[in-house]
Design goal:
22% of the residues are buried. The protein is mostly beta strands. Helix content is 8%, strand content 51%.
């Protein structure tokens, strides 16, 4: 997810933007859900944001330092694990008005391509499937580093996200406000804070 090609016209310029050699990060990684977060925020009543996250998910990355275009990412989220801190709202989100968790228990993301934007900033393109509908999305990501933890596991980190229109995936429920406008915004900010461990 974090090692991508970026071409420049001159060798000198290319050396400057490529930064440190990341080929040692090549390998397969598993997302560590205990040290990661997949969150969202949506406008509520036209004046504030409701924030939440998904507690259960799994994913894997393949990072290829020698051929960055071969780097890939996959993510599967359990819809029923949604949480906003308010039980009644969470139950409503699981119904057919929103995610319909009984009929569509998973949200998935599959990468299709990626690019390096600048320095440690990257852009990943992929297909996001929600409620049986698949749409392309683009994630803006920052590579936040790599380290060996206290247990000897090699880790990499990324953070970022994107903004999507929930109605593109059939999440169209809303209610009009007496003062004008609607109860729930259509734009949803998705945020990712990912720690991934190299497979042994």
């Amino acid at each position: 997810m974090g090692i991508f090609n970026r071409s420049k016209n001159t060798a000198a310029t290319a050396t400057a933007v490529q930064g440190p050699d990341l080929s040692h990060l090549t390998g397969d990684y598993t997302i560590d859900a205990a040290h990661s977060k997949i969150g969202f925020a949506v406008r509520h009543a036209m004046i504030t944001n409701v924030r939440g996250e998904f507690a259960e998910y799994e994913g894997k990355l393949h990072l290829d330092g020698a051929n960055p275009a071969a780097s890939t990412a996959e993510l599967t989220i359990q819809v029923a694990s949604i949480g906003t801190g308010q039980a009644q709202r969470d139950e409503h989100l699981r119904t057919g008005d929103f995610f319909d968790a009984a009929a569509h228990p998973e949200i998935t993301f599959r990468s299709t391509s990626a690019e390096r934007v600048d320095g440690d900033t990257y852009r990943m393109h992929g297909d996001l499937t929600i409620k049986g509908t698949t749409r392309p999305v683009t994630l803006d990501l920052e590579f936040t580093g790599a380290a060996t933890d206290l247990y000897g596991a090699d880790r990499v980190g990324f953070e970022g996200g994107t903004t999507v229109d929930r109605t593109d995936w059939g999440l169209t429920y809303n209610a009009a406000l007496e003062t004008g406008g609607v109860l729930i915004g259509e734009k949803v900010k998705l945020t990712l804070d990912i720690s991934a461990v190299r497979a042994s």
